[in-house]
Design goal:
The strands form seven sheets. A three-stranded antiparallel β-sheet has the order 3-10-4. A three-stranded antiparallel β-sheet has the order 7-6-8. With 633 residues, the chain is of the alpha+beta class. It has helices at residues 2-8, 20-27, 48-59, 62-93, 99-124, 130-140, 157-161, 196-206, 215-219, 261-266, 303-306, 386-392, 398-401, 430-440, 443-475, 490-532, 539-584, 596-630, and strands at residues 30-32, 39-41, 144-151, 165-167, 171-173, 179-181, 207-209, 223-225, 231-233, 246-252, 270-272, 279-281, 289-295, 312-316, 322-327, 334-341, 379-385, 412-419. The radius of gyration is 46 Å and the shape is flat. The protein has a domain at 99-133 and 434-588.
Amino acid sequence: MAEQDQNLEPQEYHPDQDQQPLKQDLDNNQNLDQEGQQQTQKYSEGNQMGSVLNQIYIEEDPKMMRRDIIKKKKKQQKEQKLISARRLKRLLRKKPVDKVRLAYQAYFFLVSLTVLALSILSYRDQTVYEGDYKQFLDNMGSYVIDDIQYTYTNKNCKTQFGSEYSSLYEYYWPGTMIGCDCSQGFNFNSLNNQNTENVEGFFKQSFMLGRVCSQDMTTKSCETVDEQQPKVFNSWNDGSYGRPFVLCARRKTGISLQTNQSYCESENKTICGTGDNKFCVPPDMSCPISDIGFTTNSNYQNLSKLNDTNIGFIYDLGKGFYFYYLKNTSNLPLIEFRVTESDKVCRRNQNQNISPNRIDYPLMTDRRKQCENTDPLFKLIHSIDEEQFYLSNNVIYLKEKLPYFNIDTRYNWTMHSKTYIPWAPNCRGQLFDDVIHEGSTLSFVYISLRVQLGVTITYFIVIGLIFNIVGIMTACNFVWSCMATRPDSQYNYIFLIEIGFKIALQIAEIIVICVSFAIIDTKRLVIKDVNDNNCVSDPVSDYFFTNLENDLTRFAWSYNLANLVIFAITLILDLIIIKHSLNQGHHHGAKKHHEKGEHQELEIGSNGESVNQQDVKSDQKLQVKSDILQSPK
């Protein structure tokens, strides 16, 4: 019982080691409330930082502490950047504008603009295109013809006479696109067909090209015009509604047009032609056909009596209409044949001519236009009216399928033939081979001009515009936010970036120009030899080679030389401006400022930075305590 009473008595309070921190807290003016659940801390101004450290040490998680340190460092960096930017603005506000740099930027804008203009002119002013040279090469590389047959029933020459035969001519009718006709039965014949503007205006108002009529349009009497596929025309007739026929030619290779008579004799080849037009063919081959035509004279050139295909031949096509061919006349061999509307073939032979004051059908996928220049080397063989031409090729139905498709007997279609382009004897041999070779690689000239134009446009945009604006603003002491943390290097840093880009693009431009020089110069000299030696007497070829030399010399070679001179001058100015920028850099913070006023500006910034240094030291102390807390006991 005495023991129970003893246990019921309250225990005496005996402080031990666990209660020692409470005593220390009381010594530091820390008060505990009566329930012992909450602490209220009061700090003196002198012990404030130490109390915070103790509180973090007791209560904060180490990971949370490191994250707060990182946030604080970022905040300090941001404050330093703002301080640097403000200081840079104060420094640059007092500096004068760099007039030398502004003059350099203005000069370089003019340079980039000039280089761009020269490149555009060099590319744009090419009057001769790859297709012009290809036309010349195709002519010089064409096959000769040693036999011509005709057929009424089978328009496929290969199946009729063998794989060596093909149509003497083929006219490609391009076909039409789909359209919507809303003319509502307009009397097209009431229009003045001589006035092309009236006809064009009618079709623009009444036709919708390339689209099907909608349901709403159909209710308004509009009709869809179905497309017509491309077709190949290769038939002809006598022009009097005679039976259509197809002429089939057998083409051969092996002609040596670029050689002279002595070569032909030494190689034991058959010599053909006369005078300057002599050439040779393999010994087992007869001289090629050099003249063809139609006649109503059955005894023309006495061909029917001679009956010798090595001389020529004549065919009766019915109704007193005859076709003939001759070999080894004074002409060069016939190799090209064209059928076209009107009586002339375009200078660019692939273009289709059209009669004067006539417009092509608006739904055509490839509309014809009247040629401004024609090829006189093409000679007229025969002519028939337009209705006969469409009838012979069995496409007269197009008049019914296509509204307002005009097949008019007033317009004629003509057949033409062309020989090899005459080539002077003194130009044959190596020069002839060089012309053929350089023509096959002429596309490299246009590729190099395109690449050069692309580099020049990039050069103008990057240097002439972007860096020019940046350079002007820098010379005017504009403060770039990206350079706020490095105020001592803004001026030269931006300038060196500009110089680096400019030099890189200039090197690329110079490389392209040098490659163009190498390509253009070789071709220019070869074409110059052709013109100086009067190698061609054909007007079209003479026009072609004269303009090609002018293009390569004036618009490509000379313009590229001007660009190189401009770049050389610019390089010298670059060196001068680099030296000027380095000397000018200490006025813009590139070197240490020695002026008294600027030292005061820097002192203002250093006072603000001293507090930041104290914060950094406190952060280092926090980091040490965090490491101690994490280390194993």
